[in-house]
Amino acid sequence: MLRRILVANRGEIALRIIRACRELNIETIAIYSEADRDSLHVKWADVAVCVGPAPSQKSYLNLQNILAAALAHGAEGIHPGYGYLSEQALFAEMCEAHNLVFIGPSAQQIELLGDKVIAKATMAAAGVPVIPGSSGAINDEKTLIKVAQDIGYPVIIKASAGGGGRGMRLAHNREELLHGYHTARAEAAIAFNSDAVYLEKFIQAPRHIEVQVLADNFGNVIHFGERECSLQRRHQKLIEECPSPVVSDELRDKMGSAAVAGARAVNYRNAGTMEFLLDHQENFYFMEMNTRIQVEHPVTEMVYGIDLIKEQIRLASGEALGYEQSGIVPYGHAIECRINAEAVRLNSRPSPGLIDQLFVPGGYGIRWDSHVYSGYVIPPYYDSMFGKLIAWGTDREEAIERLKRALDELVIEGIETSIPFHRAMVRNPQFKQGDFSTNFIEEWLEESKLWKEE
Ligand code: MV4
């Protein structure tokens, strides 16, 4: 087992990783920026190293300084968390070159799956259903128009180096297609250093469902069912749950088997997530594979009774998976609310600053993953998410009632937060029925009048 791990992240996920390490009796090295001196992850780690000034580029994304901190303080492994360096193949490669265990897949796998065109072709070859579209990147208008005609409008243009909703263009006809094609390429060239784009049939009002997988270094792969992630706004998830209210046991088996087959096809190792779109006919299609632990991993942990971060560390240490697929059994239902420092009434404008009062809910089935405390100042430089409230219940109804109760107990004063949005959502009839697609939040915010009070 790894004896000393550098945690290359900040905020709640840095604490989450430190907590897992403490339970495994692994020593931790925290890194922090000048803006994060008073953060809990700095206090909790055995050693803390300042790696640069406030802007992420100079601190949490500073490969050289982070690597130097790991080597200087005797780290054996590095946990990248999510965001930051978690999906940078170059960083994983640098770790490998210095005999540091990168807690995640190999640099090669990160690179392959980061190229959406290659990832899609690889998954299709492995028998994983993919969205109808171009067979690779599109390099000329003639092919573009031909593929669009073959699959039928509306179509969507995506950047091969994009992902997570960045660099997409919707087209309903030939004119929009040509325009979108050129603007998407120009934009992708600047944003991702690659102008490769591909074309897909646009799936109307789909659900976003992802499957958690774990793989050891010996070719064993298992899945932990799905998470429902359709409740997003501007590609930021706000509420996630496990299981999805619309996935039957039969569909779970099918999607899980597809995810496992896809992971096997790339010799995947460690934790990963296969993102799928689900249409109204229960067809599911592979979209991309995330090669990191995800923000919403706790809902899977609560339902499957497994600590995914500990598993990541065990697997990276070279241990074999300790169970077979038949031993992975879900129980109950979990829902997570991402609590952001933002003013919903001002179109979700960031609201950093001093938290001068904090009361955290508790009780049976409630989990709070956060790094904040009364008197903590949320710095303006980073992501606005500062806490995750997770409720577990024996079924979805109980999870919702418990979440409602916990949201009512949660008090945060001094800054504006997304809590009013969540309190309204858990009372929404459509949410309660589980009847929503990726369009739901945008439609609902329009009519809810949660914002526009100005
Ligand atoms: C799509 C789609 C419809 N059809 N692809 C957005 C995130 C990125 N991973 C891909 N995305 C989408 N791809 C086809 N062929 C709709 C979306 C999409 C979406 C997906 C998941 C969750 C929220 C979304 C919001 C808008 C669009």
Summarize it.
The chain is of the alpha+beta class and 454 residues long. The protein is built from 15 helices and 22 strands. It has 3 domains: 4-103, Rossmann fold (3-Layer(aba) Sandwich), CATH 3.40.50; 132-201, Dna Ligase, domain 1, CATH 3.30.1490; 207-451, ATP-grasp fold, B domain (D-amino Acid Aminotransferase, Chain A, domain 1, 2-Layer Sandwich).
Structure commentary:
- The protein folds into three domains: 4-103, 3-Layer(aba) Sandwich (Rossmann fold); 132-201, ATP-grasp fold, A domain (Dna Ligase, domain 1, 2-Layer Sandwich); 207-451, ATP-grasp fold, B domain (D-amino Acid Aminotransferase, Chain A, domain 1, 2-Layer Sandwich), CATH 3.30.470.
- The protein has 15 helices and 22 strands.
- It has helices at residues 11-23, 40-44, 63-72, 89-97, 107-114, 116-125, 141-151, 174-192, 249-265, 297-304, 308-316, 396-409, 419-425, 429-433, 440-448; strands spanning 4-7, 27-33, 47-52, 77-79, 101-102, 155-163, 166-171, 197-201, 207-215, 221-233, 236-242, 270-278, 284-290, 333-340, 342-343, 349-350, 353-354, 357-359, 366-370, 377-378, 385-393, 411-413.
- The strands form six sheets. The protein has an eight-stranded antiparallel sheet, sandwiched between helices.
- Strand 12 (270-278) and strand 13 (284-290) form a beta hairpin.
- Helix 4 (89-97) packs antiparallel against helix 5 and helix 7 (141-151) packs across helix 8.
- The N and C termini lie far apart (56 Å).
- The mean pLDDT is 96.
- Ligand MV4 is lined by residues 131, 156, 164-165, 200-203, 206, 208, 232, 235, 277, 287-288, 438.
